[in-house]
Write a structure and sequence with these properties.
mainly alpha, Arc Repressor Mutant, subunit A, 3 domains, about 50% helix, globular
């Protein structure tokens, strides 16, 4: 993990203001450092294995550890879930960190699948690893090895975790899982393809796609219909129109006083 999310509204939240009154002006720094350390070392936000001093070290707090932990508890930044302390609402506010282990497992499975398609492993020794074409060649192998008539399939593009395509695909997935915890994990490499086409062929910007993803997954109707990047690309124009249209004005109740001024008839 190399980043976390912090909302612009945090400094104005009553919880944060209360924490600042208790521990002083360094509240923002200590809270941010606590979250960063948790994302790196405890991605599920579970602090059960840490004592008060460990939590203080995570946050860079050099005062009384008990005072710091009690302040976090009283301001509801951490809470006891019955099995120990955890960061409050961590999965909701830090989904990228929370699902980092699951993303790693998906990446490993994808690499394994790709290797199985491209080659066959014979034994555990690296010298015995042969390509599919070499494995099918009768022994002894003539020199030079004949070129197969059917060339292997073109290798697909591998999207790195730092690419916009991967980050946007993962953003959609984390939003979906937040709404539907039992959602079947997809192949994120395949999800990157429609995102790449949306950016390259449809001229969608990274910022536009990110805004639409966040908006549609907060909408009761669209969150149940946009469950893949392919569907996101297909419905983008409609989603953008819905997202950017001004809110409808409420119709006036005919029985409701419209509040017009009443002028006295002096004639």
């Amino acid at each position: 993990m190399d980043d976390i999310r912090i909302k612009f509204t945090l400094p104005h939240h009553p919880k944060f203001k209360k924490l600042k009154m208790i521990i002083g002006d360094g509240a923002f720094e200590h809270l941010a450092r606590l979250w960063i350390s948790a994302a790196q070392n405890n991605p599920k936000g579970n602090l059960a294995e840490l004592d008060d001093m460990d939590i203080a070290i995570y946050a860079g707090w050099e005062g009384d550890p008990l005072k710091f932990v009690n302040a976090l508890k009283s301001c509801k930044f951490i809470a006891d879930n019955g099995n120990g302390l955890e960061i409050q609402d961590w999965r909701e506010h830090q989904p990228f960190a929370y699902y980092s282990q699951e993303r790693s497992e998906i990446a490993k499975k994808n690499i394994s699948k790709r290797w199985k398609k491209e080659g066959t492993v014979k034994g555990s020794n690296t010298d015995s690893i042969q390509t599919v074409y070499q494995a099918d060649t009768p022994s002894p192998i003539p020199t030079p090895i004949p070129t197969p008539k059917d060339s292997p399939k073109k290798k697909g593009i591998i999207f790195s975790e730092d690419s916009d395509e991967f980050k946007l695909s993962n953003l959609l997935l984390t939003n979906i899982i937040t709404n539907k915890p039992k959602f079947k994990l997809p192949d994120l490499q395949k999800w990157c393809v429609p995102i790449g086409r949306a950016m390259r062929l449809d001229n969608r910007t990274e910022d536009e796609l990110r805004k639409v993803i966040n908006w549609c997954q907060q909408d009761n109707f669209w969150s149940n219909n946009i469950l893949s990047t392919a569907k996101l690309r297909e419905q983008f124009d409609q989603l953008w129109g819905k997202m950017t249209q001004p809110p409808k004005k409420k119709a006036l109740n005919p029985d409701q006083d419209p509040g017009f001024p009443v002028y006295e008839n002096k004639f």
